[in-house]
Amino acid sequence: MIDKKFIGKVLPVFRAVAEAGQLRFFAKATGETSHIYFDESAAHDAGHSALPLPPTYLFSLELQQPDTGWRDELGIQLSRILHGEQSFTYHRLAYAGDVLRFESRIADIYDKKNGALEFVVRETRVTKQNGEHIADLRSVLVQRNG
After folding, report:
1. For the stretch 101-124, what's the b/e string if a residue is b when 16 or more beta carbons lie within 10 angstroms of its beta carbon?
2. What is the distance between the alpha carbons of residues 68 and 22, in angstroms, rounded to a whole number?
3. Which end of the chain has fewer CB atoms < 10 Å from its terminal CB, N or C?
4. pLDDT per residue as tens digits for the range 85-140
């Protein structure tokens, strides 16, 4: 069982640069059709300072976080985990070239089906290089036991 003493655990801060080429690739891969995600002129014409991050791109950036061992510390076995859910609350737009800071913590740990399924809820606050609050991310990992 994943010990509930880890609820509230603060994970190491992670920084990532929103690179224009990656934004375009992500937008194409997710079927985005708006030109503001591909063409800087179209983005400027629409009132943006640069290419905006496509919806859900922050989750993709968060996946680039180096492994700091927190999953091992909690006893999470990668071969047994599933992606449970994710949600986003956006406060401001982020753009190509922004350096984004991800501050995460374990918000909850619980189980279902008499421990056959364990859930780890991670909440992440994302800010820009100037300290502006961009978004709050929530993700749930599910560990299958047995």
Report:
1. bbebebbebebeeeeebbbbbbeb
2. 24
3. C
4. 999 999 999 999 999 999 999 999 999 999 899 999 999 999 999 999 999 999 99
Residue 4 has a pLDDT of 93
Which CATH number does the domain housing residue 130 bear? 3.10.129.10
User: In terms of residue numbers, what domain contains 60?
Assistant: 4-19+53-144
In this structure, the number of other CB atoms found within 10 A of the CB of residue 42 comes to 14
Predicted TM-score of the model (pTM) = 0.90
Residue 41 lies in a domain: no
The verdict on residue 33 lying in a domain is no
Q: How far apart are CA 116 and CA 112, in angstroms?
A: 6
